[in-house]
Q: What sequence folds into this?
């Protein structure tokens, strides 16, 4: 067992080296040679962990997705009021701190790299937003008259549009403005918890006791 | 004078050849040699019109912007009801027909190509949306309590998010769904013309006569 853990840890460290190289030198600089050097390995021993550059890219992409997903999940299970929870969860999909900024920059490089080449790159953003909207529906937190399918698609476009603009025009678009937009958008689709009939998650249940 | 016109026409034809090459072969294939061949010219005579590949790219990008801008302007001056006008204007910024799809695909290639290289590529989408929001405010067509700055940013993110998703996941996201999202979003920020106190553009003024 320890060997497997070591193997996975080493793979993660190589993937992180891959991210750093992409951030510094773009996809063109993200060669096996450069990534091995960044990870402190020989190209030969890197090939022991990944059979091809494509394999490594795929692993590095999945690792970004996995980390974002875990952070979102952690927030989802926290006892925050629903609207605050939503702001925090959706913020994980936006380049609002050093970590998410780096993740999304790497991700954008991957999207550009794979654009037009093969099957679409799935960042899992849509399925994350779908899960949020499903959760809101289950707990009867969607406002009356909301078209869930339409609002899922709209929120998905809004999030990716904001992320893209922040990455490409970060100087103009402040983090504060993004949070303001998120909050106002959430207000449009999510009920206030006091109107939600006691189905609004941990906080309400605690207060009801 | 005719010579200048010919010169411009030739430049436009070369730019269009550049687009076609990008669509067929990506930015990597968009070499001076390939573009010249597509335009039916020798690489030498292409250099007579553009001193460098960068020059040609810049011209080709501006030509896309200019054409979209002209189509949007034409719709803006038409006597359509305001909400219909907005749907049509915003649709020009989305890959909903062969022409706009090709334009935006080329545009995305340009964004990818220039990403991280120099100053941000400005597609003019934000300034177009800013102009629309300014117009709505001037004619008192914004709903009460609307935060114009926030809504400009939100609409801008929504449009680019939808455009990106349509380009990357076109099979999933139908044109009809996009139009539905546009319409519902416009309903959120724009007054019905009958409530706008006669300031709702040509149609209302005609009816008032």
A:
């Amino acid at each position: 067992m320890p060997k497997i853990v070591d193997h996975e840890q080493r793979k993660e460290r190589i993937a992180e080296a891959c991210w750093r190289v992409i951030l510094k030198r773009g996809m063109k600089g993200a060669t096996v040679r450069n990534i091995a050097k960044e990870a402190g390995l020989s190209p030969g021993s890197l090939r022991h962990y990944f059979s091809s550059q494509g394999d490594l890219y795929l692993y590095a992409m999945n690792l970004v997705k996995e980390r974002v997903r875990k952070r979102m999940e952690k927030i989802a299970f926290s006892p925050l009021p629903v609207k605050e929870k939503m702001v925090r969860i959706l913020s994980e999909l936006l380049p609002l701190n050093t970590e998410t900024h780096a993740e999304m920059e790497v991700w954008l490089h991957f999207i550009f790299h794979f654009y037009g080449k093969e099957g679409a790159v799935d960042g899992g953003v849509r399925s994350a937003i779908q899960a949020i909207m499903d959760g809101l529906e289950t707990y009867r937190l969607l406002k009356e008259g909301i078209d869930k399918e339409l609002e899922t698609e709209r929120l998905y476009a809004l999030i990716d549009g904001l992320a893209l603009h922040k990455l490409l025009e970060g100087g103009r678009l402040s983090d504060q403005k993004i949070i303001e937009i998120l909050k106002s958008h959430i207000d449009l689709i999510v009920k206030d918890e006091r109107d939600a009939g006691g189905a609004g998650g941990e906080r309400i249940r605690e207060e009801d006791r």
In short: The longest helix of chain A spans residues 2-29. Residues 75 and 89 of chain A are 6 Å apart (CA to CA). Chain A is about 75% helix and 0% strand.
